[in-house]
Amino acid sequence: MGDSDTKHTRELDFLLSRASTDHLIEPAPEKAQLAVILSAALRAPDHGKLRPWRYVVIKGKRRQEFAELVVAAMRRTTPDVPQKKIEKRFQRFSEMPMTIALGMHIQPDGKIPVAEQELAVGAAAMNVLNALHAEGFGAMWVTGEYSDDPQFLAALGFASPHRIAGFLFVGTPEKGPSQTHRPDVEDYMAIWKGEPVSFGADK
Ligand SMILES: Cc1cc2nc3c(=O)[nH]c(=O)nc-3n(C[C@H](O)[C@H](O)[C@H](O)COP(=O)(O)O)c2cc1C
């Protein structure tokens, strides 16, 4: 059953039309617009109301400085990282219209498991991706081994146990929305009939 076969609302159509892109040009959202977009994060489910999400916005002339931190962390994490990879990553971080680091303010010793706090940060990030899409912006969630580097995290303001869940690249899509192929949802759902289920996706 495809997305378009059944009658549904425009709002659902909007969700069904989101796709990631890192082909991004200016403009990125300005300050007031970004505040509204990030407010969507505060609508994410969040066990214990811990509000574990934190957003560090990197834009303008700070991008180059930040790209330097990224490549220094890459070198520390993977000393034999190829120079080509360094150059590519430097270029991406210094030229993206905006990068948002997805901070996770973790409470390790409380009642709420850390995994649930991480899930809340992920759910909030998804809301931000959809809010960006709603406002006509494009985005892509990326990460890498370097984003666990303690020195890098400290430079962003996250000392252990706080970490980041990667970055959102943000800007205006260079091209119109590309309709990427999506698998058939029937392969990922099952009605439970009192027996263990199996999924088409796993066959
Ligand atoms: C936590 C997380 C980290 C990701 N890291 C990367 C990454 O480093 N590089 C990459 O190409 N895609 C990464 N992705 C996948 C992209 O964000 C994106 O989902 C993928 O390109 C598919 O596009 P779609 O969102 O339109 O399905 C990551 C996704 C998640 C949820």
Report on the structure:
By secondary structure, this protein is α+β, with helices and mostly antiparallel strands. It has a single domain, classed as NADH Oxidase, CATH 3.40.109. It contains six helices and five strands. Strands 1, 2, 3, 4 and 5 form a five-stranded antiparallel sheet that branches. Helix 3 packs antiparallel against helix 4. It starts with 9 loop residues before the first helix and ends in a 30-residue tail after the last strand. It binds flavin mononucleotide (FMN). The site of flavin mononucleotide has 10 residues, from strand 4 and strand 5.
Task: Note the topology.
Blueprint: H1 10-16, E1 24-25, H2 31-39, E2 53-59, H3 62-77, H4 83-95, E3 98-104, H5 114-134, E4 138-142, H6 150-156, E5 163-173
Antiparallel strand pairs: 1-5, 2-3, 3-5, 4-5
Helix pairs in contact: 3-4
Bound molecules: flavin mononucleotide.
Low-pLDDT stretches: none
Can you count the helices? 6
Class from helix and strand fractions = alpha+beta
Total domain count: 1
What's the overall geometry? Answer: globular
How would a textbook summarize the main sheet? 5 strands, antiparallel
First-to-last CA distance: 18 Å
